[in-house]
Structure formats: structure tokens, C-alpha cells
Design goal:
By secondary structure, the protein is mainly alpha-helical. The protein contains 21 helices and 8 strands. A two-stranded antiparallel sheet has the order 1-2.
């Protein structure tokens, strides 16, 4: 049984300032009104922190997958907010997706900080429970600040909120250097590793474990080891690949994870929390706690003809021709990840090509917001391929280990030809095919120093509408949302390259 972590319980737990105030500063004031008086209320509170992750997959898709060469998201109308993201527009400081990431992640940090400040032995006497709640809060705070997509990887320097601040206090907090933020995150994750359990009972599956905290820490070391590109972004040329490899080795050798033998089973609705999953976001259908991420990649007509809820008003977000052509005929991941058109209600074929990776119409809920499939954030194959990346980027480790990972995933996908001497370009291409629509590609290209060359070689081939600007280093991170820039003159300065 799956614990519902994304339920809408936060109005009971948190009293915050108005939405206008939240938009104007990273953290708003908060009062507990007598809450946090016993262990049960802390359990509700930490579930409230998890609930902030509900639309994390959506943000991942709109600002990472669409930014990469896996998508060509240009519509006929030209008015969708994901199009300027696709096109490397330098005037996206007012973009709703950009501001959503800033606000959502600072909301999550606020909630985690509130739990940490209220937690004490007087109200949670059991030491094991108290340690676990502290560990979960620190894991989630780290998640919101830096890992995978959020804050540091999106905006570079950001305000460092290490406790609950009042609105007036936030107006005095500028953006901290990326190195300082990484140091804070590493301390949080190291603490979480020591505090979190290795596993949970059935009714708490999906919560952060010490293994998931280790995996996040390994990716922190891998990410900041990447090139800086001369900007204040996620890469710091820190050369900590051996630290990442050591952590990944610990998880691989001692953790309870393994490959699934069948690619499709990793994403099966009736096979959640399988051996591949190191950390995911838990969803339940019904009661407004399902997810909409399986349907945001899908055109209206497909949802309508399959009675999968009311339509979303979106044009097709098209899979790039380059990705389509990268799959070989024998690769079983192709037809699983991508839907090549459909027949509409008038029995006419519509030639849209789109990601359908997370859709299973046998499990559709009440509408397009109500899919129950958990979202895989870290899976075992990703861990193995990040380890292979660290080996190739540092020349620390065995080439046979790299080749072994690549040949396993190829064989699982029905590709029987053995490859040897895998280099970083081959690894990136194999990972692209494996993780299509999992929002990994953009970060992979950045970490390995390939993003500018790869994207600029791809644009003139893919951009048939002639809408895209050239990729440059400044576009590795996003602009600070314009409403944050204007909250107090001189508090923040805009990232270079953006209006």
C-alpha cells in the first residue's frame, strides 16, 4: 500500500502570507497556531513537505526535456509558454514555468525549515522517529535547493534559506555563491544519510531512505565536477568524480536495488516500487492526489478519443526527428516511449508524434490530472550510467565496467550487438535512448561539457520553423523571475544573457 504524500493537507499545517507576498520574496512568514504538539502532527507535517513535489515532473518536462534536443516544441499558434523555452528566448524572465520553479522550491524549503525548527524531544520523544523526520526534512531541503533541476541548477546563485525567515528578513538576503550553497547541501545530505533508515514498511514506501540520500549526494559531486562554462552555474570544475564513484559503488554493492529485466516493467502501474527505484514521487488516483504528468506530453485529440478526461488545451509537443531517427528498428524502447500518431473520433489518422511513455489507458483516472503512476526520480540504471560517466570523465575505474552497463541496457532493449570501448559520446547517446522523456538529457549534456556543441549542431537540422536562437553558455541556467528582481531594487541582479 502506498502512503499518500501529495495530499492537499497544507492549509491545516501552514499559515502563510498572501500569494502576492509569496511571489515577491523567496520565503513568507509562517505561524504554527499550536500545531506540532505531538508525533502524529509531525508525521502530517513531513507528508506536507513531500506534497510540494506533486508538480515536480511537470516542471522537469517543461524546463529540461523541452530545452533538450529530444523535443521540438514549436506550435502553429506560437503562444504556449514552453515555446520560448524551446527557442532559447532571452526574454523569459516573465515565463510562468520559470517563476513556478522558483516559488515551488522555496515553498518546499520553507516547509522543511518549519519542521526542523519545531522538531524537539519534548513533542517527539522517540529518538528513532525524531531522527527520521529530521533526516527526511534535510533530504527534501537538499532536493529543493540543488538536485536534478531545482534552484542551483536552474538559476545558479540563489538566496540561501537555512531557517524560517520573516518577509522583512528575506528582503535583506541576496544570492549566495554557488559554492556556499553546495557546501550547505552536502552537509544536509550527509546528515540525512546518518539519520534516515535504509527501508520502510509497506505503508510508508516512497519516503526518503539513506540510500536515496546517498544517491543525491553522489549526483551533487558529479554535477559540480562538471565544467563551469565561465558562468555561475551548476558546474564548478571540482573534479570530485572519485567521490561520486565511491558513493555509487556503495549503493550498487550494498543496496537492495537491481536492474529490471524488462524495460516496460520499470514504468508499469502494477509494478511500482520495483527493484530499479531508488527514489520516486508517489501518486494515488482519486481524491485530487493523482498526477497529470503522463498526459502533459500528449495532444488533446488523443486524450479525447481515448476518453482520458477533459482536454488540456495544448498543442502537440513534438518529439524531435533527431531522437526518432536515433532509435534502431530493433530497439523496443522506441514504440514504448513514443506514440506515432492515432486515429481520431472521425476515423481519420492524425500523424502527431509524441511521448506516451507514462500512459497506460487501462489505468486512467477520472480526468487528465488523475494518473496514479509514481514518477521515477532516481533509478538504478541511472545510477549505473552516472557511475560510468564519472569513470569516463576522470579515467578512474575500468573501461569494462562502462561497456558492461551499456551492453546490458542495449540487450534489455533488444539490441544484441556488443559494443566495446564506449566513450562519453557513445554513453550519452545510449542514455538518451534509455531515458527519453525522463528529463535527464539536458543535465547530461551540461555536466559533460557537450551542451553548446550538441545543441548548436542540432538546431539548423531540426528547426524547420526557424524559431530557435543559438545556444550559448548563459542559457545553461535560467533568468531570475522578473517579479523577484523588482521586489527590492538592487537585491538581485539578472543572470547574464537575459532581458
Amino acid at each position: 500500500m502506498k502512503k499518500i504524500f501529495i495530499t492537499t493537507i497544507l492549509s491545516v499545517l501552514f499559515i502563510s502570507c498572501s500569494n502576492e507576498e509569496l511571489d515577491q520574496s523567496p520565503i513568507s512568514s509562517i505561524g504554527t497556531n499550536g500545531f506540532y504538539s505531538n508525533a502524529e502532527e509531525f508525521e502530517s507535517a513531513i507528508n506536507g513537505v513531500y506534497s510540494t513535489l506533486r508538480f515536480y515532473p511537470d516542471n522537469q518536462f517543461h524546463l529540461l526535456e523541452i530545452r533538450s534536443d529530444n523535443m521540438y516544441a514549436v506550435t502553429g499558434s506560437g503562444v504556449r509558454p514552453y515555446e520560448p523555452v524551446n527557442n532559447f528566448d532571452n526574454s523569459i524572465a516573465t515565463n510562468t514555468y520559470v517563476s513556478s520553479v522558483w516559488n515551488t522550491n522555496y515553498t518546499g524549503i520553507l516547509r522543511a525549515n518549519t519542521v526542523l525548527e519545531a522538531l524537539n524531544a519534548d513533542v517527539v520523544a522517540d529518538n528513532t522517529t525524531r531522527n527520521r523526520i529530521e533526516g527526511e526534512s534535510k533530504f527534501l531541503r537538499a532536493f529543493f535547493i540543488v538536485i536534478f533541476f531545482d534552484l542551483v541548477k536552474t538559476f545558479g546563485k540563489v538566496p540561501l534559506m537555512d531557517r524560517v525567515y520573516s518577509p522583512s528578513e528575506t528582503l535583506e538576503i541576496g544570492r549566495s555563491p554557488v559554492g556556499d550553497i553546495y557546501d550547505f547541501i552536502i552537509a544536509d545530505l550527509q546528515s540525512a544519510i546518518s539519520l534516515l533508515p535504509t527501508s520502510y514498511t509497506a505503508n510508508q514506501l516512497g519516503k526518503a531512505t539513506s540510500w536515496s540520500a546517498k544517491a543525491l549526494l553522489g549526483k551533487v559531486y558529479l554535477t559540480r565536477s562538471g565544467p563551469s562554462y565561465g558562468i555561475e552555474g551548476p558546474g564548478m570544475d571540482s573534479n570530485e568524480y572519485s567521490l561520486a564513484i565511491n558513493i555509487f559503488d556503495d549503493i550498487i554493492n550494498n543496496g537492495p536495488f537491481d536492474y529490471e529485466n524488462d524495460y516496460a516493467s520499470i514504468f508499469a502501474y502494477d509494478n511500482e516500487n520495483n527493484s530499479e527505484i531508488i527514489f520516486d514521487i508517489q501518486y494515488n488516483a482519486g481524491a485530487s492526489v493523482g498526477g497529470d504528468y503522463p498526459s502533459i506530453t500528449v495532444p488533446d485529440g488523443y486524450l479525447r478519443v481515448n476518453d482520458a478526461g477533459f482536454t488540456n488545451g495544448e498543442d502537440t509537443k513534438r518529439v524531435s526527428e533527431d531522437l526518432i531517427n536515433s532509435y534502431s528498428a530493433a530497439d523496443t524502447r522506441d514504440d514504448f516511449n513514443i506514440i506515432y500518431g492515432y486515429t481520431d473520433e472521425n476515423n481519420l489518422f492524425v500523424g502527431s508524434v509524441f511521448f506516451g511513455k507514462y500512459l497506460d489507458l487501462n489505468f486512467k483516472g477520472t480526468d487528465r490530472f488523475d494518473w496514479s503512476l509514481n514518477y521515477p526520480v532516481i533509478r538504478y540504471t541511472d545510477l549505473q550510467m552516472m557511475r560510468a560517466e564519472a569513470i569516463l570523465m576522470s579515467s578512474v575505474g575500468r573501461q569494462s565496467d562502462v561497456d558492461g552497463v551499456v551492453n546490458f541496457i542495449r540487450n534489455r532493449a533488444g539490441l544484441t550487438t556488443t559494443v566495446t570501448g564506449v566513450n562519453i559520446d557513445t554513453l550519452l547517446e545510449e542514455k538518451r535512448l534509455e531515458f527519453a522523456c525522463e528529463s535527464k538529457r539536458w543535465d547530461d549534456l551540461i555536466r559533460t561539457g557537450k551542451v553548446i556543441d550538441v545543441i548548436n549542431a542540432w538546431i539548423p537540422i531540426e528547426d524547420v520553423s526557424n524559431k530557435m536562437s543559438q545556444m550559448e553558455a548563459n542559457y545553461i541556467i535560467y533568468p531570475v523571475p522578473s517579479n523577484e528582481i523588482t521586489v527590492k531594487e538592487g537585491l538581485y541582479t539578472q543572470n547574464p544573457g537575459y532581458n
